[in-house]
Amino acid sequence: MPTAIITGSGGLIGSESVRRFVESGWDVVGLENDMRARFFGEEASTAHVTDELRSAYPEFRSLDVDIRDADGVSRAFGEAGSVEAVIHTAAQPSHDWAARDPQTDFGVNALGTLNLLEAAREHAPDVPFVFCSTNKVYGDTPNRLPLEELEKRLELPQDHPYYGGIDTSMSIDDSTHSLFGVSKAAADLLVQEYGRYFDMPTVCFRGGCLTGPQHAGAQLHGFLAYLMKCTVTGTPYTVFGYGGKQVRDNIHSADMVACFEAFQRAPRAGAVYNMGGGRRSNCSMIEAIEICERISGRELEWELSDEARIGDHRWWISDVASFEGDYPDWAPRYGIDDILQEMYEQNVERWMATA
Question: Residue 41: how many CB atoms within 10 A of its CB?
């Protein structure tokens, strides 16, 4: 039986990956030490997700390994068995948190990724290495786009080359990234370099907003989940900057993991793709609030702050055409309304019980 090592296995994308690979007949080893609880508080803990995975899949092995521990990571690889895929989703994911503790942020995102790459090079150099990167590697360069202000969103002119979505031709240089963006960019470049220098089958998926019903939405991370949670529970919400018209594309965790599977079946060396909801699945903050209110039947109490987050994007829609060209069998199943409806249905009772 092939083995997949999945880091951050209690998180949104990690847990989705565990479910998909176990149900597809893989032996799965998860590396998870619940750093989310340290980052965002106990309400964002992934411990309950790990417990649920162990209960649902007795064959799933979850190891309490900190990816900053090179020896521990190497030992996990050596004892895992016949490793045939590495899915790296573990991260410190917040702009704001990174500025509070840059050393931990860089240690988790950059050094942790280096440790995993070295372990893969030693124990499984020929197997696909999938890395969850981020569109924040482009810094605030997207904010230079000639956006037009519409009633509820900012938008590019239809004749602009990036109207269909931003591709990897956008430079990552000469921009403000946030410290989180820098640590993820360092990891992104490492993954590419191991692919090219050592001819390892690696891929960076530079994600926009990754989301889904299992997302442990917190104020500093997971905006759609946190937005719906605030709407349901009556918790006040703050929108930071841009009049609430900033635009994000959102991809469901199941659609993201389907990308991983496609790459695992037909890997390439040093591949890079922008990946998100694209033109099929995007919204502004104002539009997202309206959808949450319609689905929940409740009105959100929210305010607008004039201060945008440093390095934050005014507009981001991913161009997924490159990945679709290389993997034509992949197709997303979820749009914004589908994502928020599922998020509401699967969480409303739990959110209300703890409100």
Answer: 12
Classify 41 in phi/psi space as left (phi over 0), alpha (psi -120 to 50) or beta. left
pTM to 2 decimal places:
0.94
Closest CA to 81 of 33, 42, 28, 122: 28
Place of tokens 């360092």: 186
Cα within 13 Å of Cα(7), Cβ side = 30
* Mean pLDDT of each 10-residue bin along the chain, 355 residues long: 96 96 98 91 88 97 98 98 97 90 98 98 98 96 97 98 98 95 98 98 96 72 85 95 96 98 98 97 97 98 89 92 98 96 93 81
- 3-state secondary structure at position 227: helix
**Helix H segments across the chain?**
12-23, 35-40, 47-56, 70-80, 95-100, 102-106, 112-123, 179-197, 223-233, 253-265, 285-296, 321-326, 336-354
Q: What share of the chain is helix, strand, coil (3-state, %, to 5)?
A: 45, 20, 35
Give the pLDDT confidence score for residue 219 in this predicted structure: 64
In contact, 140 and 177? CB cutoff 8 Å: yes
Tokens of 326: 């290389």
Report the C-alpha gap between 20 and 187 in whole angstroms. 25
What does the DSSP assignment read for 108-127?
IIIIHHHHHHHHHHHH-TTS
Q: Answer whether 204's CB lies under 8 Å from 188's CB.
A: yes
Q: At 324, which amino acid appears? A: E
Residue 77 CA to chain centroid, in angstroms? Answer: 23
Provide the CA 267 distance to its chain's centre, in angstroms: 20
State both tokens at 37. 């609880």
Instruction: Identify the sign of the CA torsion 187, 37, 135, 146.
Output: negative
CB distance 112 to 90 below 8 Å: yes
Q: How confident is the model over 225-264, as pLDDT tens digits?
A: 999 999 999 999 999 999 999 999 999 999 999 999 999 9
Residue with tokens 């050592």: 198
Establish how many alpha carbons lie within 13 A of residue 152's alpha carbon, considering only the half-sphere containing its beta carbon.
11
